[in-house]
Amino acid sequence: MNYLVVGLGNIGAEYASTRHNMGFMVLDAWAQASNLLFETRRYGSVAECSYKGRKFILLKPSTYMNLSGNAVRYWMHKMNVPTERIIVICDDLNLPFGTVRMRMQGSDGGHNGLRDIEDALGTQEYARIRIGIGNGFARGGQVDYVLGEIDEEQKERIRELSVDVIAGIKEFATGGPGRAMNLLNTKKS
Questions:
Q1: Residue ranges covered by each domain of the chain
Q2: Which helix (H) or strand (E) holds 56?
Q3: 20 included as an active-site residue
Q4: Angle, CA 51 vertex, CA 1 and CA 6 arms, to 5°
């Protein structure tokens, strides 16, 4: 069984440590923990790994955040992955920094990357894992905030929660969405 795990972000060193690149950061942590190498392929960087008979295709789209839909649709068809086995990881302004929420469907919540994926797939029914980045910006400062760099303490927090997110994705594949949501949506102190 194939699963497509999409980490949203923007390509380029200038974006690597920005709030908008939470999806890339989680997939980079997964690759590092599993000794995986991303290869530059059509529409993005791709790595593959297996866990308990499931194959995970990790995708970091090279299309920039707001045009992620083409990459998701291409790899979904290429790897024969149905929408119920797609998981998208992204940042969320509406959640406090470091909060993780998984949903099986829903609106884009104003996130342009999710909106483009929804448009490309023609559905809102795919799993998404949102990582809170908070909303500590003045009116009109949203773009600068999401494209702003996180500090060293926040980077460490993202490395820690990446372990949880990866475990949640593996649980999604082996135990089902309900168990994954129970794991990821539980408040941690």
A1: 2-184
A2: strand 54-61
A3: yes
A4: 70
Of 48 and 137, which is predicted with more confidence? 48
User: Would you state the structure tokens that stand for residue 5, as one six-digit string?
Assistant: 């795990």
Query: What number of residues does the chain have?
Result: 189
| Structure token digits, residue 135 | 């909303």
Taking the C-alpha atoms of residue 46 and residue 166, their distance in angstroms, rounded to an integer, is: 16
The end-to-end CA distance of the chain, in Å, is: 35
Tokens of 163: 């372990």
**φ/ψ of residue 62, rounded to 5:** -100, 15
Question: Assign residue 176 a region: left if phi > 0, alpha if psi is -120 to 50, beta otherwise?
Answer: left
Closest among 71, 83, 94 to 2, alpha carbons compared: 83
Task: Tell me how far the alpha carbon of residue 129 is from its chain's centroid.
Answer: 6
CATH 3.40.50.1470 fits 2-184, yes or no: yes
Banded pLDDT at 51 (limits 50, 70, 90): very high
Query: Which H or E run includes 115?
Result: helix 112-121
Q: Which helix (H) or strand (E) segment is 41 a member of? A: strand 39-41
Q: What is the token pair recorded at 188?
A: 């941690």
Q: Which of 19, 20, 111, 128 is an active site residue?
A: 20
- What pLDDT digit, counting tens, does each position of 52-90 carry? 999 999 999 999 899 999 999 999 999 999 999 999 999
Strand partners, 3: 56
